[in-house]
Specification:
By secondary structure, this protein is of the alpha/beta class. The protein has a single domain, classed as 3-Layer(aba) Sandwich (UDP-N-acetylmuramoyl-L-alanine:D-glutamate ligase), CATH 3.40.1190.20. It has helices at residues 40-50, 65-75, 119-124, 126-130, 143-155, 186-193, 202-210, 252-265, 270-285; strands at residues 3-7, 11-17, 33-38, 54-58, 60-62, 85-87, 93-99, 105-110, 134-137, 159-162, 181-182, 216-220, 226-229, 235-238. It catalyses: D-ribose + ATP = D-ribose 5-phosphate + ADP + H(+). This is Ribokinase.
């Protein structure tokens, strides 16, 4: 099995359940508050560990109880967190998540220690990058770090996957040729292409990313499944399970990425990996919570 490396964010999630998202100037009451481990990088690494992958996480937390809890939680599923930074002068990152009755969510992130995941930190841990086969990145850490890590990983011959979330309208042009795979959802695809997502333009929009140098594009489409554009221009749709009752979509995208990477690390081709990731995401959205909703491989 190949070695997986996640370079990304670690947050403590403050999850509230809402009747609806508040409008500008509106005050609403939430139903309860949960504190649960999260962060896109941590969620993806946790999914990899829980699904039997060999994963290491590079990231940063504060020297506080929340940072300790995040690391302990990842270590409990076999993720190597030995190189995670523990900073005395920064707080662990936080996210405030509002979950609506139909399971959709909105997220506000306070980066905290995540802003200290710098290119220098990656250089200091170059041996970890060299020992890895598949490198997974997101955009909750400084963009310059993402670009440096992707360029370095590509130079070392590693497979590089980018989950472009939270989406950035103008990613550096020199990032795209470093990516073996980019995995936006439909909203992120619209931001990346500069126009609202339209199903009829899905192939055209994916081709526009490929024209920038990305080898393959995999777009997750919520309840509609996902769409793959390969490097040769061939395409494939993967259907979501129509019988799944959506409870909470938190961590669905992160678990999809983690499951995809684990499947690729076992030598599966991208189409098989996408099907496996879709099944994992189906389970995740049928349960409440973030990391707690991610299934074990046996499930």
């Amino acid at each position: 099995m190949k070695q997986l490396l996640v370079i990304g964010s670690m947050n403590m999630d403050f999850v509230t359940h809402l009747d609806h998202m508040p409008a500008v100037g509106e005050t609403i009451l939430a139903q309860g508050l949960e504190l649960v481990p999260g962060g896109k990088g941590a969620n993806q690494a946790y999914a990899m560990g829980k699904l039997g992958g060999h994963a290491t996480l590079l990231g940063a937390v504060g020297a506080d109880s929340q940072g300790t809890k995040l690391c302990d939680n990842l270590a409990s599923v076999g993720v190597d967190v030995s190189r995670v930074l523990h900073l005395g002068d920064a707080a662990t990152g936080m996210a405030v998540i509002g979950v609506q009755p139909q399971g959709d969510n909105s997220i506000i992130v306070l980066p905290g220690a995540n802003s200290r995941v710098t290119p220098d930190y990656i250089r200091q841990n170059l041996d970890v990058l060299e020992a890895s086969d598949i490198v997974v990145l997101q955009l909750e850490i400084p963009l310059e770090t993402v670009v440096y890590a992707a360029q370095t990983a590509k130079r070392l011959g590693k497979q590089v996957i980018l989950d472009p979330a939270p989406a950035v309208a103008h990613l550096p042009e020199d990032l795209f040729p470093c990516l073996d795979l980019i995995k936006p959802n439909e909203t992120e695809l619209g931001i990346l292409t500069g126009r609202p997502y339209e199903p009829a333009r899905l192939r055209e929009d994916a081709l526009s990313l490929q024209a920038k140098g990305v080898r393959r594009v995999l777009v997750t489409l919520g309840g509609a499944g996902s769409y793959l554009l390969r490097e040769d221009g061939s395409q494939e749709f993967f259907q979501a399970d129509p019988h799944v009752t959506v409870v909470d979509t938190t961590a669905a995208g992160d678990s999809f990425v983690g499951a995809l990477a684990v499947s690729l690390s076992r030598g599966r081709d991208l189409a098989d990996a996408a099907r496996f990731a879709s099944r994992v995401a189906d389970i995740v959205v049928s349960r409440p919570g973030a990391q707690s909703s991610i299934p074990y491989l046996e499930e």
